[in-house]
Specification:
The protein is an alpha/beta fold and about 240 residues long. The chain has helices at about 20-25, 50-65, 80-90, 110-115, 120-125, 140-145, 150-160, 200-205, 220-225, 225-235; strands spanning about 5-10, 30-35, 70-75, 95-100, 125-130, 135, 165, 185-190, 210-215.
């Protein structure tokens, strides 16, 4: 059965993170959309000008162009973003997949959810730029925080594409309802070796909220370390 997947990249990365997974899904007969959110990838919108509404508008514009409901996936921070998209376009979303992502309750933000988190290399090395427009993770810890299961050489190639994360969306307090977002089937792909969002935190976020959980023994970025296994999970979802 042919489906359309809309894959939303994580913070700091861009559509390029999905290159291998996208190709595998296309080879399996599916349509795949992988946008760059504002300020990411090839989109050079200044970070200081970007809000969560810009992210949501970017995705909604793509969703509205599709005739049939689609499968919407959010990675990491952008679990919050796809939740909001699903809230405003529930009729266009067949299901939501959260990949090591923030499956956040209403009125919570990324910033509020990382308060007090322990055991995260990413959180321990997280900081804002001097002008407060961007969020960063200490450069020397990026590899360990997000992709410790790929080689330093491979990570160095990916690292050249990583950009500072716009700060304002990280403070956005999620607006969702049981009527819209709550009625859409949800799935979670946990990453058990994750050093950015430790698996215990992932499990606390998805507990009781999803139809099914899939596990990958990977870092925060299985799109790099186990793209075939990740693609197979997504293919299994639509069989």
């Amino acid at each position: 059965m042919k489906e359309t997947f809309l894959l939303v990249h994580s913070a700091w990365l861009g559509a390029w993170q999905w290159n291998t997974v996208k190709q595998l899904l296309i080879e399996a007969g599916h349509n795949v959309i992988t946008p760059d959110l504002p300020g990411h990838g090839v989109d050079l919108t200044p970070a200081k000008d970007i809000t969560m509404q810009d992210y949501v508008d970017c995705i909604v514009n793509l969703v509205d162009k599709q005739e049939e409901p689609m499968i919407l996936l959010g990675h990491s921070f952008n679990g919050i973003t796809v939740s909001r998209v699903a809230e405003v376009r529930p009729e266009k979303i067949k299901s939501i997949v959260y990949l090591a992502a923030f499956l956040a309750p209403a009125k919570s933000s990324f910033v509020s959810m990382i308060e007090g988190v322990e055991g995260s290399v990413a959180v321990e090395n997280f900081y804002f730029s001097d002008d407060q427009s961007c969020a960063l993770v200490k450069a020397s810890e990026m590899h360990q925080a997000f992709a410790h299961d790929i080689s330093e050489e491979v990570f160095a190639k990916a690292n050249s594409f990583i950009l500072p994360e716009p700060a304002r969306p990280l403070f956005y307090e999620l607006e969702i309802t049981d009527k819209n977002w709550g009625a859409i089937p949800k799935y979670y792909i946990e990453c058990t070796l994750d050093k950015a969002i430790p698996v215990a935190i992932q499990r606390a976020m998805y507990d009781g909220k999803v139809e099914k959980v899939f596990s990958l023994e990977t870092s925060h970025t299985p799109n790099f370390s186990q793209p075939k296994e990740l693609a197979n999970i997504l293919i299994e979802l639509v069989k």
